[in-house]
Design goal:
Elements (H helix, E strand, L loop, with lengths): L28 H10 L11 H9 L23 E5 L4 H13 L5 E5 H6 L21 E3 L6 H16 L8 H14 L3 H14 L4 H13 L3 H14 L4 H13 L3 H14 L4 H13 L3 H14 L4 H15 L7
Parallel strand pairs: 1-2, 2-3
Helix pairs in contact: 1-5, 2-5, 6-7, 6-8, 7-8, 8-9, 8-10, 9-10, 10-11, 11-12, 12-13, 13-14
Bound molecules: iron/sulfur cluster (SF4).
Iron/sulfur cluster binds next to helix 2 and helix 4.
Length: about 325
């Protein structure tokens, strides 16, 4: 085992006499905390497909994950803080994966290993395959390859360690706390205060897609529609797969009479997930408003195929059929 190198821990802005440098390190509490955490990550014993074999190989003596303090693959998510998504993510497996992630203790990290976990890989757009786990979990590091070699996985883990080095002991969760507080105020219908909380979360972390999206929802209720559109666009620029943000943005654009832009956003959403009857129904209504009745009829039929118990969809279908039957010149 190699000797402890205190230079990794030492804060270079504080001078220490050369004779003491092997034995003394001056650092911050966050530095010490991160140093301990980054060298004792415990991955979960969890594999999905062929990439998992490479992950297993990484733990063998040839590659020796123990050098990084990561060899303790835990059997319970409650004892693990790193989830390596190694393999193809099917729609059936998404639910248990998210459940496992939710059972892990904070702070927790996700590494998407290989082409399948990162974006669907060779099975992308298959009827049963998810195009990347980042639609459902916040991924910290992506490792490319099909499959990535153990060396590539180790490189990804070193990148994760570097990311952890940049975190602060007392701040890493503050944006989350502000978001939670905002959510709570939102539920209690204290919208102006909720908006302030979401703003605070975004001051701490401007790349917090969820805070942008919830800010958008709050601004809609406060009737500040233009700002809400900007907020939703902010969320989607960070996470283009945020389905609720896409749906809410499309709904808002439709309400504001921007039918074409609304239809484009419904298209984006339905491309990600075609099983949203509400999106099909609203897309049909906007198409009808654009006088594209035939396409609107196809869309409303699609909505009813997914859920035929929605009365408003049947009403919309009736209106579209009536418009289709009218002689061309008299349609309004
Ligand atoms: S990325 Fe390649 S090796 Fe990894 S699970 Fe997908 S198909 Fe298998």
């Amino acid at each position: 085992m190699s000797e402890l190198d205190l230079r990794e821990l030492h804060d270079p802005s504080v001078p220490v006499p050369e004779s003491l440098q092997d034995n003394v390190a001056v650092t911050t509490l966050s530095g010490l905390y991160n140093y301990s955490r980054r060298n004792s990550l415990w991955p979960l014993t969890f594999g999905l497909a062929c990439c998992a074999i490479e992950m297993i190989a990484t733990a063998t003596s040839r590659y020796d994950l123990a050098r990084f303090g990561m060899e303790v693959f835990r059997a319970s998510p409650r004892q693990a803080d790193l989830l390596i998504i190694s393999g193809t993510v099917t729609k059936k497996m998404v639910v248990p994966i998210v459940r496992i992630y939710n059972q892990m203790a904070e702070p927790r990290y996700v590494l998407a290993m290989g082409a399948c976990a990162s974006g669907g890989g060779p099975f992308k757009e298959g009827y049963n395959v998810v195009s990347g786990i980042d639609k459902y979990l916040p991924v910290d590091v992506y490792v490319p390859g099909c499959p990535p070699t153990p060396q590539a996985l180790i490189h990804g883990l070193i990148m994760l360690q570097k990311k952890m080095d940049g975190q602060r002991l007392f701040q890493w969760n503050t944006a989350d706390l502000q978001l939670d507080r905002g959510e709570e105020l939102f539920v209690r219908e204290r919208y102006s205060e909720a908006l302030k909380s979401f703003d605070r979360a975004l001051t701490i972390d401007p790349n917090f897609a969820q805070a942008w999206a919830r800010r958008g929802d709050t601004l809609v209720i406060l009737r500040r529609y233009r700002e809400a559109i900007d907020s939703y666009n902010g969320a989607l620029a960070i996470n283009p797969y945020d389905e609720p943000a896409l749906l809410n943005l499309a709904l808002l654009l439709g309400r504001l009479g921007q039918y074409k832009t609304a239809v484009i956003n419904y298209d984006r959403l339905l491309e990600l997930n075609p099983e949203v009857p509400e999106a099909w129904q609203n897309r049909a209504i906007r198409l009808a408003q654009l006088k594209r009745y035939k396409l609107a009829l196809t869309n409303i039929n699609q909505a009813l195929r997914y859920d035929d118990r929605v009365a408003t969809a049947w009403v919309a279908r009736g209106i579209i059929l009536r418009a289709l039957r009218k002689p061309k010149g008299s349609r309004s």
